[in-house]
User: Which sequence fits this backbone?
């Protein structure tokens, strides 16, 4: 027997991905019709629909009248479309609210932790290509979240960042719709393990043994990139860390997030008391892995305020 909208909403609000997937599939044609009526045919209309589906994932619990979920979904598409129509450039500007992180809202990681569908979403992020996953993690789970900072970290133009994020949102939405019934690994356990690994590594480095860490966990020909600065190999990383230690700089892990072969550590940099402005307040370690070992590390100092 076909389930009603009311039944599907109730199940989705209880954390059933299959119910939400069925609900979105049922209303997708009507959502697309709204986007086309505002934006006309083209990629912007499709972006508006995909973003609306991601918004629904985050906000399905806000639906008070399950029988009116259709108009609710179409209203989200209409708002997205109007925002894009007002934008001075033909690029997606409607960030999915479950990923956006204004200063007065929970961080994306907190939002996902509060959702019963957390593992489903992280499973989808893990299916993105390396380039899409990289910009997604930077944009939604790090302090280097502005387009300009992501461009600096990745060494690409801002326009490329925008297009990659647009592609990532589409790919993520498509994956979520096809994996509603799949088994989703425990994302919390994975990220907790990455946190412990990062904490132990930073602690070892602070004890003056970073050279051993690099030898054991980096590939021999791994590349070290300082965003906007020099490039080199493992020696550059070890020399830089030892120089900071000699100057009295300390680091403390603040955030660790990982998906597939992309791993991000964010650390607080603590300057020595007699030279409080010796270094920037924070560092971001963007690591690309192969076989569990670092093949490339990009070091970046993000602007503290999120944009």
Assistant:
């Amino acid at each position: 027997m076909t389930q009603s909208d009311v039944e599907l909403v109730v199940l989705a609000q209880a954390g059933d991905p299959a119910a939400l997937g069925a609900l979105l599939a049922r209303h997708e044609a009507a959502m697309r019709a709204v986007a086309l009526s505002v934006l006309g045919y083209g990629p912007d209309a499709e972006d508006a629909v995909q973003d609306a589906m991601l918004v629904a994932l985050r906000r399905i619990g806000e639906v008070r009248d399950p029988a009116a979920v259709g108009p609710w979904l179409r209203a989200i598409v209409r708002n997205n479309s109007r925002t894009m129509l007002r934008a001075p450039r033909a690029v997606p500007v409607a960030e999915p609210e479950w990923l956006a992180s204004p200063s007065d809202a929970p961080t994306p990681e907190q939002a996902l932790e509060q959702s019963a569908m957390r593992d489903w979403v992280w499973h989808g992020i893990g299916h993105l290509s390396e380039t899409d996953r990289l910009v997604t993690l930077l944009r939604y789970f790090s302090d280097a979240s502005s387009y300009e900072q992501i461009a600096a970290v990745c060494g690409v133009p801002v326009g490329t960042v925008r297009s990659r994020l647009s592609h990532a949102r589409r790919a993520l939405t498509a994956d979520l719709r096809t994996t509603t019934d799949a088994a989703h690994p425990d994302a919390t356990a994975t990220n907790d393990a990455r946190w412990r690994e990062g904490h132990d590594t930073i602690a070892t480095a602070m004890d003056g043994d970073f050279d051993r860490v690099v030898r054991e966990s980096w590939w021999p020909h791994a590349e070290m990139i300082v965003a906007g600065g020099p490039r080199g190999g493992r020696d550059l990383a070890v020399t830089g860390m030892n120089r900071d230690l000699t100057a009295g700089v300390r680091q403390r892990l603040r955030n660790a997030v990982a998906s597939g072969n992309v791993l991000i550590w964010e650390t607080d940099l603590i300057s020595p008391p007699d030279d409080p402005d010796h270094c920037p307040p924070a560092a971001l370690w963007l690591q690309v892995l192969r076989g569990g070992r670092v093949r490339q590390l990009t070091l970046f100092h993000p602007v503290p305020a999120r944009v």
Observations:
- Strands lie at 218-226, 231-232, 250-259, 262-270, 282-290, 293-300.
- The longest strand covers residues 250-259.
